[in-house]
Structure formats: C-alpha cells, structure tokens
Write a structure and sequence with these properties.
3-stranded mixed beta sheet; alpha+beta; elongated; 153 residues
Length: 153
C-alpha cells in the first residue's frame, strides 16, 4: 500500500464567518445540493449538517510519484494498493462530510468541517480490503470561499 505524500487536512478544518447563522445553513445545504451531496441530517439545535454517504467513484484520484494529485479537481485522494505488481482498482468509495456550526460570540460563527472517506478494493471475488482515503479539500475550499476565512488566519 502506498503512502499519501501530499498535504491534506488530517484534522477538522475550521472556518470563521460573520454571516448570519440562517445564511450559513442555507448556503451549506445549497452547496451540498449543487455538488450532488445528499443532506442526511440537519439539526439546528446542535449545529449539525451531515451528508449522506456518497459514492465518489467518478471523482477520485491518486497521487503521482512526488505527491501531486493526478486529477487536481478530484474531491477524494486514495492510496495506491498493488500486489505482485498488479495495481488494485477501487470498487467502492464513500465520502461523508460532517459540518458543525457554533456561535463564538461577537457575531462570529465557527464552521467545523470533518470529512470521512472510506474505500473498498476487491482484488478478487472473495477478498476485499478497506482503507481510508482523504478529502482533497475541494468541498472545504468551496465552503471557505462562500462562508468566511479559516480560523487560523
């Protein structure tokens, strides 16, 4: 199994915004819809928006030998797996995005984005191997551009 060399968000990405909370809710759910992510749950009391586990077979990528994405616009990056010089092809890739909106005071809200990506390879009819992929940050950048700035800026 290869190792991912690129820099990906391994922790939850946090964005600060001064936009009204209702605007954040509607903007994030709209972004989900526009990008074919189904909203699984919206809990305004707890500040949660969860996406349904979504198949990412058409928009995944691997890295090249120096850690650059082969398909830069992909949302999911996976480790390459091979056995006896035969590279395995992923058969199932599911991604979920968990978004938490919380009040910070001074009319500021924090948007915490936590992606979960799981991939299953089936090298033959009886064997399956599961591994974690990474979000490339594409959705996170869309949210950042439309909502505010990162908390660490």
């Amino acid at each position: 199994m290869s190792v991912l060399n690129g820099k990906y968000e391994s922790n939850t990405l946090e964005i600060l915004s001064d936009r009204p909370v209702d605007t954040l809710w509607s903007s994030i759910t709209r972004l989900f819809t526009e990008n074919n992510l189904t909203v699984k749950k919206v809990d305004k009391e707890r500040g949660l928006i969860l996406s349904q586990a979504t198949a990412f077979i058409p928009i995944y990528t691997f890295e090249d030998t120096v850690g650059n994405l082969i398909v830069p616009q992909a949302w999911v990056v996976l480790k390459k797996i091979s056995l006896k010089k035969k590279e395995w092809v992923p058969k199932k890739i599911l991604g979920e995005w968990h978004i938490q909106i919380s009040e910070m005071g001074n009319s500021t809200r924090k948007i915490a984005i936590d992606p979960i990506v799981n991939c299953t390879y089936y090298p033959n009819l009886i064997t399956s191997v599961e591994t974690r992929g990474q979000s490339t940050g594409a959705l996170e950048r869309l949210i950042k551009r439309s909502m505010g700035k990162p908390a660490n800026e």
